[in-house]
């Protein structure tokens, strides 16, 4: 029996997603969440076959929630569900490890199709074409980061100190410093300020 977590801070849209899940995976156990904290608690309860994640929750916005879940639960497939349907947003979510991207404007049958495809192990997203050279270069650099390094970059963007990021990740400050060297090298930047500017440009 599938276990699926639905995360959206709007009750009406959670109900729409629940309806799509019930059609795509009859009999599935469905957990509804309104915040990233609730998502983390739900995922900690047991094996999850799919997380449907809105990009804008009460305690998370942009790609931060996706990067955090990918770092903490790399085995859980995550499908982003968002009203932000611009091609760069779709491509960025997929680059950061999303198994799919479902626009909120999609009709119910399309949502059902997408959920069923992702549950079967396929990827599903609207056709948004290829990125331009500059965007493609940025996506390649972001894709080279590990989930832990993405969380460190998220911490930098939030203005957290090395020791605070180390506490968040449960590692030593020396480990964070070592990771930062690799993060800067992969991103092609030389310091924290440049890394933060880059993180802001991708809505991390």
TrEMBL record:
GO terms for molecular function: DNA binding. SUPFAM superfamilies: C-terminal effector domain of the bipartite response regulators (SSF46894), CheY-like (SSF52172). CDD domains: LuxR_C_like, REC_NarL-like. Pfam families: GerE, Response_reg. The lineage of its organism: Bacteria, Pseudomonadati, Pseudomonadota, Alphaproteobacteria, Caulobacterales. Keywords: DNA-binding, Phosphoprotein. SMART domains: HTH_LUXR (SM00421), REC (SM00448). The modification 4-aspartylphosphate is found at residue 54. PROSITE patterns: HTH_LUXR_1, HTH_LUXR_2, RESPONSE_REGULATORY. It comes from the Bacteria. Residues 138-203 form the HTH luxR-type domain. The keyword DNA-binding applies. GO terms for biological process: phosphorelay signal transduction system; regulation of DNA-templated transcription. The keyword Chaperone does not apply. InterPro entries: CheY-like_superfamily (IPR011006), EvgA-like (IPR051015), NreC/VraR/RcsB-like_REC (IPR058245), Sig_transdc_resp-reg_C-effctor (IPR016032), Sig_transdc_resp-reg_receiver (IPR001789), Tscrpt_reg_LuxR_C (IPR000792). Residues 3-119 form the Response regulatory domain. This is DNA-binding NarL/FixJ family response regulator.
């Amino acid at each position: 029996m599938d276990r699926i977590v639905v995360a959206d801070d709007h009750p009406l849209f959670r109900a729409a997603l629940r309806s799509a899940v019930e059609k795509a995976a009859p009999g599935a156990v469905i957990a509804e969440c309104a915040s990233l904290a609730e998502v983390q608690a739900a995922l900690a309860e047991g094996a999850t076959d799919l997380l449907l994640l809105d990009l804008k929750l009460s305690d998370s916005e942009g790609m931060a929630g996706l990067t955090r879940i990918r770092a903490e639960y790399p085995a859980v497939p995550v499908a982003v569900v968002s009203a932000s349907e611009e091609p760069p947003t779709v491509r960025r979510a997929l680059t950061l490890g999303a198994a799919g991207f479902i626009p909120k404007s999609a009709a119910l049958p399309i949502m059902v199709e997408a959920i069923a495809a992702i549950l079967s192990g396929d990827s599903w997203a609207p056709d948004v074409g290829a990125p331009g050279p500059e965007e493609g270069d940025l996506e390649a650099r972001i894709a080279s980061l590990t989930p832990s390094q993405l969380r460190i970059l998220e911490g930098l963007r939030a203005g957290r100190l090395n020791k605070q990021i180390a506490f968040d990740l449960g590692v030593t400050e020396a480990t964070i410093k070592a990771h930062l060297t690799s993060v800067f090298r992969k991103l092609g930047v030389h310091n924290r300020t440049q890394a933060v500017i880059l993180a802001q440009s991708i809505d991390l």
